[in-house]
Write a structure and sequence with these properties.
Number of strands: 2
Number of helices: 3
Strand order of the largest sheet: 1-2
Strand content: 5-15%
Largest sheet: 2 strands, antiparallel
Helix content: 55-70%
Structural class: mainly alpha
Bound molecules: zinc ion
Distance between the termini: 78 Å
Order of helices and strands: HHHEE
Length: 113
């Protein structure tokens, strides 16, 4: 059995090693949060979702958020059909991006949500 001073020394050594270990874990998890926040935001933008929301979820949940944002369906953008060229354009568009057709003023009345 060791005497008390050497036990104390051993304990101090263990605490120092634990502290170093915790600092490493903290650093690695911070970097991983950042990486998953960026990756989730990138996928969210590509799929029509809110990048800020998914960056926060990516930072908190890491790979879980990334998997979820990949699996959820692409956000549907409301569209209307151009009467001139029959292409689908965003419902808020004033001008067709395919043929340049200008939608009637009546269609531009702001919607009351
Ligand atoms: Zn058109």
């Amino acid at each position: 059995m060791d005497d008390l001073p050497s036990q104390l020394e051993s304990f101090q050594t263990q605490m120092a090693s634990l502290q170093a270990h915790l600092a490493t874990v903290l650093w690695v998890s911070t970097v991983l949060s950042f990486v998953f926040a960026l990756a989730s935001a990138y996928v969210a933008v590509r799929r029509g979702h809110n990048p800020l929301r998914w960056a926060m979820l990516g930072a908190m949940l890491g790979p879980i958020a990334l998997v979820v944002v990949v699996l959820i369906p692409t956000a549907k953008v409301a569209t209307k059909v151009c009467p001139d060229c029959a292409e689908s354009v965003k419902v808020d568009a004033a001008k067709c991006r395919f043929c340049g057709y200008r939608f009637d003023q009546a269609e531009l009345v702001p919607r009351i949500d």
